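FYI - complex with adenosine-5'-triphosphate, inputs then prediction.
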Amino acid sequence: MDTNTAAIKAETLTKTFNGNIALDSLTLEIKKGELFGLVGPDGAGKTTTMRLLTAIMEPTSGDAWVAGHSVLKEGERIKERIGYMSQKFGLYEDLTVMENIIFYADLYEVPQKERPERIERLLGFSNLTPFKGRLAGKLSGGMKQKLGLACALIHTPEILFLDEPTNGVDPVSRRDFWRILYGLLKDGITIFVSTAYLDEAERCTRVGLMHRGKILIDDSPARIKGSLGFPMVELWTGDARTAEDIARGCPGVRSVSIYGNRLHVALERSKALDGVIGRLQKEGIIVRDHRSILPSLEDVFIAMVEEP
Ligand SMILES: Nc1ncnc2c1ncn2[C@@H]1O[C@H](COP(=O)(O)OP(=O)(O)OP(=O)(O)O)[C@@H](O)[C@H]1O
């Protein structure tokens, strides 16, 4: 097996907890320079995948190679080559921004002579230079995430693992954070990021949709959206909540999701639409308009997990 060209390669990687499968035979290859997004709801197995690939936790079976090293046999080598920002990334709230970065520089044994330039660059790209003397505990949520990222990058890793890095962060800070990630990508870093936000997944070069410990589909966002294979329609209705329940029970309907006063309906075949509209009207629901749409990643995900 050629493990040199892949940044990350997993083969039937499996983790069970007390007989319950958290990660089910993950087989995956991520090339250098990819921005891979692992997407799925809470409990899908994203954190477990991260912990196995970062050699923090041992698999029950299977193996994976990160930067060419086996997670089973060479965990310490892997840790030198990667940056990992976990959900509860350890920032010291009673230390300043600068002191936190220095703490991680010490932890990773970054040579003293290389520090000033690296720290300046990290503070610069994360826009934290004006705040370097501020206590980490006094930073906003978005700034804390950026500081976490700066700390995870202090030893110039080749591969960066980010576990739901923008969870609970406001939309503007999320956008800033992604801008930083694109900058890192341009520098040649491979990024493996997990998220529960499907709109964020659209920003990745490749996405794996995860559900109950399995990756259901893994491809570029555009190809995933093109792969649905079912016609998708958007309906403007009155009482969208009731309309959702009614539409879900109609023949030929694969899945339904609600967006404000609109429904996205995946159909087994286009003809089923007439039946859905007829049924809604019969139940007293006003159907203001309808049109064919391209599915979003969320639509595809829902259609896949609701598969009969
Ligand atoms: N240490 C553990 N002991 C027992 N069960 C665990 C452990 N860690 C995870 N699990 C279980 O494994 C499954 C996958 O959890 P995991 O944390 O990997 O999901 P996730 O997609 O990262 O979700 P979240 O965002 O909530 O962390 C869940 O059913 C969870 O309860």
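The first helix runs from residue 46 to 53. The CA atoms of residues 232 and 266 lie 5 Å apart.
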